[in-house]
Amino acid sequence: MRTVFLCGVAALALSACGTSVPDSGAGVGFDDYQTYAQRQMAQQAQGGGQTTVQPPTAVESQTLDSAEAQAAANAAAQNSGVAPVEASPSNPAPQVVTNAAGISDENNFEAVSAERDIQADAALIAQNRAQYQLVTPTDLPPRPDSDAPNIVEYALRTTNPVGAQLYERRGRYDGNRISKACGSYNSSDLAQEAFLAAGGPERDRRGLDPDGDGFACAWDPAPFRAARG
After folding, report:
1. Bond from prior residue into 84 cis (ω within 30 degrees of 0)
2. I need a labelling partner for 30 at 20 to 30 A (CA). Which of 15, 58, 192, 214 fits?
3. Using CA atoms, how far apart are residues 198 and 73, in angstroms rounded to an integer?
4. 171 Rama sector, left if φ>0, alpha if ψ -120 to 50, beta otherwise
5. For residue range 72-101, what is the model confidence (pLDDT) as tens digits?
6. CB–CB of 201/166 below 8 Å?
7. pLDDT for 34-45, tens place per residue?
8. SS3 sequence, 142-179?
């Protein structure tokens, strides 16, 4: 019995601490619904709550004059969709160039015939033909003030490649002797000229052609042969 009494006291205490439920009759915002409705009716009576929409503007039709209508019809017929642009009457007329300086008129028969007739043209052709000179190719002239052998002629006369022995060589050939002998010439062309002038290619008195191919100090006739084609 004592336990039931204590439970009842605890339930009363909890009900005293709970929050109150808001009144369901409260209106929108901080006012009740009746005050809110009255305020809305007042705004509608003053026109403040409505938005007035202007009616659409009527599209006025424009009538084209005869020239514009014709231009539009021509453009539509050509499928361009754009009327032609007319030049202003104040613009100067374009200048037509008939025969400007520096432009040849040799293909214009009328312009050429005005300058000379057929007889004069034939005389001019004959005069040009009389001035033609046919130059016949000849052998190269000898080198002036020099009796040295012609190494170009020698290169074209020979056919053996470099290193192919054609002439017998006797004696002692070593690297130092060959280097010293060839080093006394500024180029292999000068060494070849001296070699031919001293009895080459059959004889090699100066030790310039140890392999006996007829070419001194690594002289190569290939560039001269290639130039001949």
Report:
1. no
2. 15
3. 102
4. left
5. 777 666 665 566 666 666 777 777 766 555
6. yes
7. 787 788 788 777
8. CCCCCCCCCHHHHHHHCCCCCCCCCCCCCCCCCHHHHH
